[in-house]
Amino acid sequence: MTVDSVNRWGWRLLDARTISLVRTGFKSVVAAQDGPARLSRSFYAHLFAEYPDFRTLFPASMDALREHFVLALGYVFEHLDDTDRVEPFLEQLGRDHRKHGISGAHFRAGSSALISAFRAFAGNEVWTDEVETAWTDALTVVSNAMADAADNDELPPFWSATVVEHQRLLDDLAVVRLKTDGEIPYFPGQYVSVQIPQRPKLWRYLSPAIPSNPYGEIEFHVRRVSGGWVSPAMVTETAVGDRWSISPPLGGMHIDRAIREDVLMIAGGTGLAPLRAQVMEMAQRSNNPRVHLFVSGTYPCDLYDLDTLWQLSLSNPWLTVVPVTEELENPWWYSGQPRELPWGMHHRLHGPVGKVVTRFGSWADRQIQICGSPAMVRTTLYALRKVGTPMEHIQHDPF
C-alpha cells in the first residue's frame, strides 16, 4: 500500500473497531436464510431505483452477477486489515468493470446503494449510528480504490477479436483461435474475460492457452458447463468470423524465477490452458527450472492435448508430462477413436489427481500451481495440505 493510497482512499479510517462491525454485520447477512440472495437483490434494487440508467449496463439475467457480487464482498470484508492483499484485488475489480462501461462515478454511487441495502436488511435495532459510520467509512475506502483504478487505467476497456478457427475436439470441448485487433499485453498464466455475440453483456473468464504475441493471435480451450449461459454457445454455436470482445488481463499466477525452485503444475481439464501458455513461453528461454506437469481428466478422452505437450517435452528436457485419469476407460457415450499415449510418454496414472500427485510426497521444495474446476482445486489443495505441503507455495486462480 502506498502513502498516496492511504491519503487518497482513507485506509487509516479503518481501525479494528470499524472492521469488526463491518465483518460482524456481513457475516450475519450471510448466515441468514437466503441472506446473500436477499442482500444482492436489495442492492441492485436500490441502485436501479436511484440510478435507472445504470440498468442498461447489465445483462438481462443477473443471477451469476449477484452471486459473484456477494462472493467479492465477502473476500473484501474478510481482508480489510490486509491491505497488501485487498488493495490489488479492489484495483483489479475496478479495472475489470470498465468493460461494462462503468467508471469511478458508478462505484461511488454503488457504495450508497449498498449501505441502503444493508440498512434495510439489518433493521433499526441493529443499524445504529456507530454501525452506519463503520459501513460508510469502509465502503468509502473500497469504492474509492476501485474508482481510482477504473479512472486511471491506460489500457482500453476491451479489444475486439475475430474467430479464425473453431475446432470441436469433444462433444463438450472446443479450441477457439482468434486474431485480435491489437496485441493484448497479458503474461502467460493470467486470464481475461470474454464476451461473445451470441450472449451480449455476459462476460466469462478464460485463460489464454498460448503466450501473448505481436501478431494478435490468441487461443482458448472451452469446456461446456452444464446449465451455463455462455460456455455452451462458445462450444456449439461459435463460427469463423464471429467477433468477440476480450478484456485486459487479470490474475498473477506465474513462476518466480528469483527463488530458483523447481515447479509442480497440476491441471484438470481445460485448466491446462494457463499452464500450457507458461510452458510454451518457457520453451523460448535457454534456462528453466524443472517442471513436472500432471495433466488430468475424468476419462482418457479428456486428455485432449497430450500430443502438443509431448512434442514440447521432447525438445525441452526440463519438462516432464504425466497423464492422469480417474477412470480407466472412456464413457459408453464417447464416439471418438481411443487415443493412445504418445510413444515414450510416462504411463497413465489412475485416481483423483490430488491423491495421485501426493503419492510422490509433499512437493514441499516446489513452486506449485493448480488449475481446473473449483471442485478439483479444492480437493487437490486438501490432498496437498494433508501431506504437509506449505500452502504459501501454492498458486491458483480465484474460484
TrEMBL record:
Signal peptide: none annotated. It catalyses: 2 nitric oxide + NADH + 2 O2 = 2 nitrate + NAD(+) + H(+); 2 nitric oxide + NADPH + 2 O2 = 2 nitrate + NADP(+) + H(+). Transmembrane segments: none annotated. Its EC number is 1.14.12.17. It is an enzyme of class 1 (oxidoreductase). InterPro entries: Cbr1-like_FAD-bd_dom, FAD-bd_FR_type, FNR_nucleotide-bd, Globin, Globin-like_sf, Globin/Proto, MRET, OxRdtase_FAD/NAD-bd. This is nitric oxide dioxygenase. It comes from Rhodococcus navarretei.
